Amino acid sequence: MCDFxxxxxxxxxxxxxxxxxxxxxxxxWDHFTRSELRDSAGTSxxxxxxxxxxxxxxxxxxVTFYQFSISWSRLFPTGVVAAPNEKGLQYYNTLIxxxxxxxxxxxxxxxxxxxxxMLQEKFGGWKNExxxxxxxxxxxxxxxxxxxxxxxxxxxxxPYLVAWHGYxxxxxxxxxRGKIRTxxxxxxxxxxxxxxVWHTYKERFEPYQKGMISIVLGSHWIEPNKLExxxxxxxxxxxxxxxxxWFAKPIHGDGDYPEGLKNEFLFLPHxxxxxxxxxxxxxxxxxxxxxxSNFKPPNTLPKMGQNLSxxxxxxxxxxxxxxxxxxxxxxxxGWFTDSHPLQISLMYxxxxxxxxxxxxxSYAAIKYDNIDVFGYTAWSLLDGFEWQHAYNIRRGLFYVxxxxxxxERIPKSSALYYKQIIQENAHIRKQIIQxxxxxxxxxxxx
Length: 446
Fold this sequence. Notes:
Layout: E1 5-9, H1 12-15, H2 28-35, H3 51-61, E2 65-69, H4 72-75, H5 86-101, E3 105-111, H6 117-123, H7 130-146, E4 152-157, H8 159-169, H9 180-204, H10 206-209, E5 212-219, E6 222-224, H11 230-252, H12 259-264, H13 273-279, E7 286-290, E8 306-308, H14 312-322, E9 328-333, E10 337-338, H15 344-369, E11 373-379, E12 393-394, E13 398-399, E14 410-411, H16 413-423, H17 430-433
Parallel strand pairs: 1-2, 1-11, 2-3, 3-4, 4-5, 5-7, 7-9, 9-11
Antiparallel strand pairs: 6-8, 10-12, 13-14
Helix pairs in contact: 7-9, 8-9, 14-15, 15-16
Protein backbone atom coordinates (compact mmCIF):
# COMPACT_ATOMS: atom_id res chain seq x y z
CA MET A 1 0.00 0.00 0.00
CA CYS A 2 3.04 2.32 0.04
CA ASP A 3 2.25 3.53 -3.51
CA PHE A 4 -1.45 4.01 -2.81
CA UNK A 5 -2.62 7.52 -3.71
CA UNK A 6 -4.67 9.51 -1.21
CA UNK A 7 -6.51 12.56 -2.50
CA UNK A 8 -9.42 14.91 -2.18
CA UNK A 9 -11.65 16.57 -4.75
CA UNK A 10 -13.81 19.56 -5.65
CA UNK A 11 -15.89 20.79 -8.58
CA UNK A 12 -15.18 24.26 -9.99
CA UNK A 13 -18.77 25.51 -9.90
CA UNK A 14 -19.20 24.37 -6.31
CA UNK A 15 -16.22 26.14 -4.76
CA UNK A 16 -14.70 28.77 -7.06
CA UNK A 17 -17.31 31.51 -6.72
CA UNK A 18 -16.48 34.73 -8.63
CA UNK A 19 -19.02 33.74 -11.25
CA UNK A 20 -18.87 37.13 -13.01
CA UNK A 21 -15.32 38.12 -12.15
CA UNK A 22 -12.37 38.66 -14.50
CA UNK A 23 -14.20 37.92 -17.71
CA UNK A 24 -15.74 34.56 -16.82
CA UNK A 25 -18.72 33.62 -18.98
CA UNK A 26 -22.04 32.28 -17.71
CA UNK A 27 -22.55 28.52 -17.42
CA UNK A 28 -25.79 26.56 -17.51
CA TRP A 29 -25.53 26.25 -13.73
CA ASP A 30 -25.19 30.01 -13.28
CA HIS A 31 -28.44 30.36 -15.19
CA PHE A 32 -30.17 27.36 -13.60
CA THR A 33 -29.52 28.34 -9.98
CA ARG A 34 -31.13 31.71 -10.55
CA SER A 35 -34.04 30.69 -12.75
CA GLU A 36 -35.00 27.36 -11.15
CA LEU A 37 -33.51 27.14 -7.66
CA ARG A 38 -34.01 30.83 -6.83
CA ASP A 39 -30.57 30.66 -5.30
CA SER A 40 -27.01 31.38 -6.33
CA ALA A 41 -23.60 29.82 -5.94
CA GLY A 42 -22.46 33.43 -5.50
CA THR A 43 -19.06 33.49 -3.88
CA SER A 44 -19.53 30.05 -2.29
CA UNK A 45 -16.15 29.01 -0.82
CA UNK A 46 -14.47 31.65 -3.03
CA UNK A 47 -11.63 29.37 -4.09
CA UNK A 48 -10.92 31.64 -7.07
CA UNK A 49 -9.69 34.42 -4.81
CA UNK A 50 -8.73 32.36 -1.75
CA UNK A 51 -6.46 29.83 -3.44
CA UNK A 52 -3.83 30.09 -0.70
CA UNK A 53 -6.36 28.89 1.88
CA UNK A 54 -7.23 25.88 -0.26
CA UNK A 55 -3.54 25.05 -0.63
CA UNK A 56 -3.05 25.28 3.14
CA UNK A 57 -5.98 22.91 3.67
CA UNK A 58 -4.46 20.43 1.21
CA UNK A 59 -1.10 20.60 2.97
CA UNK A 60 -2.79 20.06 6.32
CA UNK A 61 -4.34 16.81 5.07
CA UNK A 62 -1.12 15.58 3.51
CA VAL A 63 -2.80 14.33 0.32
CA THR A 64 -0.79 13.10 -2.64
CA PHE A 65 -3.23 14.45 -5.24
CA TYR A 66 -5.95 17.06 -5.67
CA GLN A 67 -8.77 16.36 -8.09
CA PHE A 68 -10.33 19.60 -9.34
CA SER A 69 -12.21 20.70 -12.43
CA ILE A 70 -11.59 23.51 -14.87
CA SER A 71 -14.47 25.90 -15.43
CA TRP A 72 -14.85 25.79 -19.23
CA SER A 73 -16.51 29.22 -19.28
CA ARG A 74 -13.74 30.75 -17.16
CA LEU A 75 -11.26 29.87 -19.89
CA PHE A 76 -13.58 30.45 -22.86
CA PRO A 77 -16.60 32.59 -21.93
CA THR A 78 -18.71 31.47 -24.91
CA GLY A 79 -17.42 27.89 -24.87
CA VAL A 80 -15.89 28.23 -28.33
CA VAL A 81 -12.12 28.03 -28.36
CA ALA A 82 -10.57 31.33 -29.36
CA ALA A 83 -8.21 33.56 -27.40
CA PRO A 84 -8.46 32.35 -23.79
CA ASN A 85 -9.57 34.56 -20.95
CA GLU A 86 -6.17 35.52 -19.54
CA LYS A 87 -7.27 35.85 -15.91
CA GLY A 88 -8.83 32.41 -15.97
CA LEU A 89 -5.75 30.95 -17.63
CA GLN A 90 -3.54 32.55 -15.00
CA TYR A 91 -5.65 31.08 -12.19
CA TYR A 92 -5.35 27.49 -13.40
CA ASN A 93 -1.65 27.83 -14.19
CA THR A 94 -1.08 29.17 -10.68
CA LEU A 95 -3.16 26.39 -9.13
CA ILE A 96 -1.28 23.64 -10.99
CA UNK A 97 2.15 25.15 -10.30
CA UNK A 98 1.31 25.66 -6.63
CA UNK A 99 0.22 22.04 -6.25
CA UNK A 100 3.39 20.71 -7.85
CA UNK A 101 5.51 22.97 -5.65
CA UNK A 102 3.89 21.22 -2.68
CA UNK A 103 4.36 17.75 -4.18
CA UNK A 104 0.61 17.36 -4.77
CA UNK A 105 -0.32 15.87 -8.13
CA UNK A 106 -3.11 17.65 -10.04
CA UNK A 107 -5.90 15.38 -11.30
CA UNK A 108 -7.82 17.59 -13.71
CA UNK A 109 -11.44 17.16 -14.78
CA UNK A 110 -12.32 18.89 -18.03
CA UNK A 111 -16.08 18.85 -17.57
CA UNK A 112 -17.86 18.80 -14.21
CA UNK A 113 -21.32 19.85 -15.43
CA UNK A 114 -20.84 23.62 -15.93
CA UNK A 115 -21.38 23.84 -19.70
CA UNK A 116 -20.95 27.39 -21.07
CA UNK A 117 -24.45 28.86 -21.36
CA MET A 118 -23.87 30.00 -24.94
CA LEU A 119 -23.47 26.38 -26.08
CA GLN A 120 -26.80 25.50 -24.49
CA GLU A 121 -28.65 28.44 -26.00
CA LYS A 122 -27.10 28.23 -29.46
CA PHE A 123 -26.79 24.45 -29.95
CA GLY A 124 -29.05 22.87 -27.33
CA GLY A 125 -26.13 21.67 -25.25
CA TRP A 126 -25.31 17.98 -25.22
CA LYS A 127 -28.37 17.18 -27.32
CA ASN A 128 -26.41 18.45 -30.31
CA GLU A 129 -23.53 16.42 -31.76
CA UNK A 130 -21.82 19.68 -32.71
CA UNK A 131 -20.84 20.14 -29.06
CA UNK A 132 -18.65 17.02 -29.31
CA UNK A 133 -16.18 18.79 -31.59
CA UNK A 134 -16.33 22.00 -29.54
CA UNK A 135 -15.57 19.99 -26.40
CA UNK A 136 -12.66 18.33 -28.17
CA UNK A 137 -11.27 21.75 -29.14
CA UNK A 138 -11.48 22.88 -25.51
CA UNK A 139 -9.85 19.67 -24.29
CA UNK A 140 -7.09 20.03 -26.88
CA UNK A 141 -6.30 23.52 -25.60
CA UNK A 142 -6.10 22.19 -22.03
CA UNK A 143 -3.76 19.37 -23.06
CA UNK A 144 -1.55 21.83 -24.95
CA UNK A 145 -1.51 24.35 -22.11
CA UNK A 146 -1.44 22.26 -18.94
CA UNK A 147 -0.41 18.79 -20.12
CA UNK A 148 3.29 19.30 -19.45
CA UNK A 149 2.40 19.33 -15.73
CA UNK A 150 -0.79 17.24 -15.53
CA UNK A 151 -0.44 13.44 -15.66
CA UNK A 152 -4.01 12.44 -14.74
CA UNK A 153 -6.98 13.69 -16.78
CA UNK A 154 -10.72 13.12 -16.41
CA UNK A 155 -12.87 13.96 -19.43
CA UNK A 156 -16.35 14.07 -17.85
CA UNK A 157 -17.53 13.70 -14.27
CA UNK A 158 -20.44 11.28 -13.91
CA PRO A 159 -22.22 11.46 -17.29
CA TYR A 160 -25.15 9.49 -15.85
CA LEU A 161 -26.15 12.51 -13.77
CA VAL A 162 -25.56 14.92 -16.65
CA ALA A 163 -27.97 12.99 -18.87
CA TRP A 164 -30.53 11.72 -16.36
CA HIS A 165 -30.92 14.73 -14.10
CA GLY A 166 -30.09 17.41 -16.65
CA TYR A 167 -32.49 16.17 -19.33
CA UNK A 168 -34.79 13.70 -17.54
CA UNK A 169 -35.74 14.70 -14.01
CA UNK A 170 -34.73 18.32 -14.57
CA UNK A 171 -33.23 18.71 -11.09
CA UNK A 172 -29.85 19.56 -12.64
CA UNK A 173 -28.98 22.15 -15.25
CA UNK A 174 -30.17 22.74 -17.91
CA UNK A 175 -33.37 21.57 -16.21
CA UNK A 176 -35.13 19.79 -19.07
CA ARG A 177 -37.72 17.22 -18.04
CA GLY A 178 -39.41 14.04 -19.09
CA LYS A 179 -38.09 13.13 -22.55
CA ILE A 180 -36.53 9.71 -22.15
CA ARG A 181 -35.31 9.66 -25.76
CA THR A 182 -33.43 12.89 -25.11
CA UNK A 183 -31.83 11.44 -21.98
CA UNK A 184 -30.32 8.55 -23.92
CA UNK A 185 -29.41 10.75 -26.87
CA UNK A 186 -27.46 13.01 -24.51
CA UNK A 187 -25.77 9.97 -22.96
CA UNK A 188 -24.85 8.79 -26.46
CA UNK A 189 -23.22 12.12 -27.27
CA UNK A 190 -21.35 12.20 -23.96
CA UNK A 191 -19.84 8.78 -24.67
CA UNK A 192 -18.76 9.87 -28.14
CA UNK A 193 -17.36 13.14 -26.77
CA UNK A 194 -15.32 11.26 -24.19
CA UNK A 195 -14.00 8.81 -26.79
CA UNK A 196 -12.97 11.59 -29.16
CA VAL A 197 -11.07 13.45 -26.44
CA TRP A 198 -9.39 10.21 -25.31
CA HIS A 199 -8.17 9.53 -28.85
CA THR A 200 -6.98 13.12 -29.24
CA TYR A 201 -4.90 12.81 -26.10
CA LYS A 202 -3.50 9.37 -26.93
CA GLU A 203 -2.56 10.30 -30.50
CA ARG A 204 -1.29 13.86 -30.07
CA PHE A 205 -0.17 14.30 -26.46
CA GLU A 206 0.39 11.04 -24.58
CA PRO A 207 3.56 10.08 -26.53
CA TYR A 208 5.50 12.98 -24.97
CA GLN A 209 3.38 14.06 -21.99
CA LYS A 210 3.12 10.48 -20.67
CA GLY A 211 -0.18 11.04 -18.88
CA MET A 212 -3.32 8.95 -18.39
CA ILE A 213 -6.94 9.77 -19.11
CA SER A 214 -10.30 8.36 -18.06
CA ILE A 215 -13.92 9.28 -17.30
CA VAL A 216 -15.56 9.25 -13.85
CA LEU A 217 -18.54 6.89 -13.78
CA GLY A 218 -20.90 6.87 -10.82
CA SER A 219 -23.27 4.28 -9.46
CA HIS A 220 -25.33 2.99 -6.61
CA TRP A 221 -25.12 -0.59 -5.33
CA ILE A 222 -28.12 -2.90 -5.18
CA GLU A 223 -28.40 -6.15 -3.25
CA PRO A 224 -31.13 -8.80 -3.56
CA ASN A 225 -33.50 -9.54 -0.74
CA LYS A 226 -32.70 -13.24 -1.10
CA LEU A 227 -29.37 -14.41 -2.44
CA GLU A 228 -30.95 -17.68 -3.62
CA UNK A 229 -33.72 -15.91 -5.55
CA UNK A 230 -32.66 -15.76 -9.20
CA UNK A 231 -35.33 -13.19 -10.05
CA UNK A 232 -34.12 -10.85 -7.30
CA UNK A 233 -30.54 -11.29 -8.47
CA UNK A 234 -31.54 -10.63 -12.06
CA UNK A 235 -33.30 -7.40 -11.08
CA UNK A 236 -30.22 -6.23 -9.21
CA UNK A 237 -27.99 -6.98 -12.18
CA UNK A 238 -30.39 -5.10 -14.45
CA UNK A 239 -30.39 -2.12 -12.09
CA UNK A 240 -26.58 -1.96 -12.16
CA UNK A 241 -26.51 -2.21 -15.93
CA UNK A 242 -29.01 0.63 -16.30
CA UNK A 243 -26.86 2.98 -14.23
CA UNK A 244 -23.19 1.99 -14.32
CA UNK A 245 -23.34 -0.36 -17.31
CA TRP A 246 -24.96 2.30 -19.51
CA PHE A 247 -21.58 4.04 -19.77
CA ALA A 248 -19.14 1.42 -18.49
CA LYS A 249 -19.92 -1.32 -21.00
CA PRO A 250 -19.27 0.84 -24.09
CA ILE A 251 -16.08 2.34 -22.63
CA HIS A 252 -14.66 -0.49 -20.51
CA GLY A 253 -16.36 -3.36 -22.30
CA ASP A 254 -17.11 -4.16 -25.93
CA GLY A 255 -18.06 -0.70 -27.21
CA ASP A 256 -21.81 -1.24 -27.03
CA TYR A 257 -24.67 -0.86 -24.55
CA PRO A 258 -25.80 -3.72 -22.28
CA GLU A 259 -28.17 -6.08 -24.05
CA GLY A 260 -30.84 -5.60 -21.40
CA LEU A 261 -30.78 -1.86 -21.94
CA LYS A 262 -31.10 -2.28 -25.71
CA ASN A 263 -33.98 -4.72 -25.31
CA GLU A 264 -35.83 -2.46 -22.86
CA PHE A 265 -35.40 0.78 -24.81
CA LEU A 266 -35.83 -0.01 -28.49
CA PHE A 267 -35.27 3.66 -29.32
CA LEU A 268 -31.79 3.57 -27.78
CA PRO A 269 -29.29 5.15 -30.19
CA HIS A 270 -27.08 2.67 -32.02
CA UNK A 271 -23.33 2.61 -32.37
CA UNK A 272 -22.00 1.51 -35.74
CA UNK A 273 -19.36 -1.22 -35.77
CA UNK A 274 -16.69 1.40 -36.44
CA UNK A 275 -17.98 3.48 -33.50
CA UNK A 276 -17.87 0.46 -31.21
CA UNK A 277 -14.23 -0.14 -32.12
CA UNK A 278 -13.52 3.56 -31.61
CA UNK A 279 -15.20 3.73 -28.18
CA UNK A 280 -14.17 0.49 -26.48
CA UNK A 281 -11.06 0.70 -24.35
CA UNK A 282 -11.08 4.50 -24.14
CA UNK A 283 -10.01 4.65 -20.51
CA UNK A 284 -6.58 4.11 -18.97
CA UNK A 285 -8.15 3.23 -15.62
CA UNK A 286 -11.63 2.87 -14.14
CA UNK A 287 -12.49 6.10 -12.31
CA UNK A 288 -15.41 5.39 -9.99
CA UNK A 289 -17.73 7.65 -8.00
CA UNK A 290 -19.68 6.12 -5.13
CA UNK A 291 -21.65 7.47 -2.20
CA UNK A 292 -25.09 8.30 -0.89
CA SER A 293 -25.60 11.84 -2.11
CA ASN A 294 -25.75 11.38 -5.88
CA PHE A 295 -28.10 8.41 -5.74
CA LYS A 296 -30.22 9.17 -2.71
CA PRO A 297 -33.54 7.60 -3.72
CA PRO A 298 -36.95 9.00 -2.82
CA ASN A 299 -38.78 7.18 -0.05
CA THR A 300 -41.42 6.14 -2.53
CA LEU A 301 -38.97 4.20 -4.71
CA PRO A 302 -40.32 0.65 -5.11
CA LYS A 303 -37.98 -1.99 -3.75
CA MET A 304 -38.68 -4.63 -6.43
CA GLY A 305 -36.68 -7.20 -4.51
CA GLN A 306 -33.73 -4.86 -4.16
CA ASN A 307 -32.00 -3.14 -1.27
CA LEU A 308 -29.90 -0.04 -1.75
CA SER A 309 -26.51 -0.58 -0.12
CA UNK A 310 -23.41 1.54 0.51
CA UNK A 311 -21.01 -1.40 0.46
CA UNK A 312 -18.10 -0.13 -1.58
CA UNK A 313 -16.24 -3.42 -1.44
CA UNK A 314 -19.07 -5.30 -3.09
CA UNK A 315 -19.48 -2.87 -5.97
CA UNK A 316 -15.70 -2.98 -6.54
CA UNK A 317 -16.01 -6.75 -6.85
CA UNK A 318 -18.81 -6.29 -9.38
CA UNK A 319 -16.64 -3.96 -11.46
CA UNK A 320 -13.78 -6.46 -11.32
CA UNK A 321 -15.99 -9.28 -12.57
CA UNK A 322 -17.83 -7.28 -15.22
CA UNK A 323 -14.90 -5.40 -16.73
CA UNK A 324 -11.94 -7.75 -16.57
CA UNK A 325 -10.18 -6.54 -13.42
CA UNK A 326 -9.40 -2.93 -14.36
CA UNK A 327 -7.16 -0.61 -12.38
CA UNK A 328 -9.54 1.48 -10.27
CA UNK A 329 -9.34 4.99 -8.90
CA UNK A 330 -12.06 5.74 -6.37
CA UNK A 331 -12.57 9.21 -7.82
CA UNK A 332 -15.34 10.40 -5.50
CA UNK A 333 -16.47 9.04 -2.17
CA GLY A 334 -18.01 11.16 0.54
CA TRP A 335 -20.72 11.79 3.04
CA PHE A 336 -22.86 14.72 3.98
CA THR A 337 -24.49 16.40 6.94
CA ASP A 338 -27.18 19.04 7.03
CA SER A 339 -26.26 22.70 7.01
CA HIS A 340 -26.60 23.38 10.74
CA PRO A 341 -23.11 24.43 11.90
CA LEU A 342 -23.66 23.39 15.53
CA GLN A 343 -24.16 19.79 14.44
CA ILE A 344 -21.08 19.55 12.27
CA SER A 345 -18.55 18.19 14.77
CA LEU A 346 -20.79 15.54 16.33
CA MET A 347 -22.30 14.55 12.99
CA TYR A 348 -18.93 14.05 11.36
CA UNK A 349 -17.62 11.86 14.14
CA UNK A 350 -20.46 9.48 13.30
CA UNK A 351 -20.39 10.06 9.56
CA UNK A 352 -16.66 9.70 9.12
CA UNK A 353 -16.73 6.44 11.06
CA UNK A 354 -19.02 5.23 8.29
CA UNK A 355 -16.64 6.81 5.79
CA UNK A 356 -13.75 4.87 7.26
CA UNK A 357 -15.71 1.72 6.52
CA UNK A 358 -15.58 2.68 2.85
CA UNK A 359 -11.82 3.18 3.07
CA UNK A 360 -11.71 -0.18 4.82
CA UNK A 361 -13.78 -1.79 2.08
CA SER A 362 -11.35 -0.54 -0.54
CA TYR A 363 -8.39 -1.77 1.51
CA ALA A 364 -10.02 -5.15 2.06
CA ALA A 365 -10.86 -5.33 -1.63
CA ILE A 366 -7.17 -4.84 -2.43
CA LYS A 367 -5.81 -7.24 0.19
CA TYR A 368 -8.35 -10.05 0.11
CA ASP A 369 -10.14 -9.76 -3.24
CA ASN A 370 -7.14 -8.88 -5.40
CA ILE A 371 -8.83 -5.77 -6.80
CA ASP A 372 -6.44 -3.25 -8.32
CA VAL A 373 -7.47 -0.06 -6.49
CA PHE A 374 -4.64 2.46 -6.70
CA GLY A 375 -6.16 5.60 -5.22
CA TYR A 376 -8.94 7.07 -3.09
CA THR A 377 -10.55 10.52 -3.38
CA ALA A 378 -12.38 11.87 -0.36
CA TRP A 379 -15.16 14.24 -1.41
CA SER A 380 -15.07 17.10 -0.81
CA LEU A 381 -12.19 19.29 0.33
CA LEU A 382 -14.53 22.16 1.24
CA ASP A 383 -18.13 22.88 1.97
CA GLY A 384 -19.58 24.40 -1.18
CA PHE A 385 -22.65 24.83 -3.33
CA GLU A 386 -24.16 21.34 -3.51
CA TRP A 387 -26.00 21.47 -6.81
CA GLN A 388 -29.78 21.04 -6.37
CA HIS A 389 -29.30 21.00 -2.59
CA ALA A 390 -27.67 24.45 -2.71
CA TYR A 391 -26.30 25.19 0.78
CA ASN A 392 -28.65 22.81 2.58
CA ILE A 393 -26.08 20.04 2.93
CA ARG A 394 -22.34 20.07 3.57
CA ARG A 395 -19.83 17.59 2.15
CA GLY A 396 -16.53 19.26 2.98
CA LEU A 397 -13.74 18.01 5.17
CA PHE A 398 -13.29 21.71 5.97
CA TYR A 399 -16.11 23.88 7.27
CA VAL A 400 -16.68 27.22 5.53
CA UNK A 401 -18.84 30.03 6.89
CA UNK A 402 -20.35 31.31 3.64
CA UNK A 403 -21.45 34.58 5.28
CA UNK A 404 -17.94 35.42 6.37
CA UNK A 405 -15.66 37.58 4.25
CA UNK A 406 -12.56 35.63 5.28
CA UNK A 407 -14.15 32.21 4.70
CA GLU A 408 -11.59 30.42 6.80
CA ARG A 409 -11.16 26.70 6.13
CA ILE A 410 -11.85 25.09 9.52
CA PRO A 411 -10.97 21.37 9.74
CA LYS A 412 -13.83 19.16 10.87
CA SER A 413 -13.45 15.90 12.71
CA SER A 414 -13.51 14.22 9.31
CA ALA A 415 -10.45 16.21 8.18
CA LEU A 416 -8.52 15.15 11.26
CA TYR A 417 -9.60 11.56 10.74
CA TYR A 418 -8.63 11.53 7.07
CA LYS A 419 -5.28 13.17 7.87
CA GLN A 420 -4.58 10.36 10.34
CA ILE A 421 -5.50 7.70 7.80
CA ILE A 422 -3.10 9.23 5.28
CA GLN A 423 -0.31 9.52 7.83
CA GLU A 424 -0.71 5.90 8.80
CA ASN A 425 -0.61 5.00 5.09
CA ALA A 426 -3.83 3.01 5.26
CA HIS A 427 -2.46 0.32 7.56
CA ILE A 428 -5.91 -0.08 9.01
CA ARG A 429 -6.00 -2.28 12.06
CA LYS A 430 -6.88 -5.91 11.66
CA GLN A 431 -9.85 -5.66 13.98
CA ILE A 432 -11.41 -3.03 11.71
CA ILE A 433 -10.95 -5.02 8.53
CA GLN A 434 -11.79 -8.47 9.85
CA UNK A 435 -15.61 -8.09 10.05
CA UNK A 436 -15.75 -7.39 6.32
CA UNK A 437 -13.47 -10.17 5.08
CA UNK A 438 -16.29 -12.63 4.47
CA UNK A 439 -18.53 -10.30 2.43
CA UNK A 440 -18.72 -10.91 -1.29
CA UNK A 441 -20.57 -9.87 -4.40
CA UNK A 442 -23.97 -11.20 -5.40
CA UNK A 443 -22.56 -11.38 -8.94
CA UNK A 444 -20.79 -14.58 -7.86
CA UNK A 445 -24.22 -16.22 -7.57
CA UNK A 446 -25.20 -15.64 -11.19
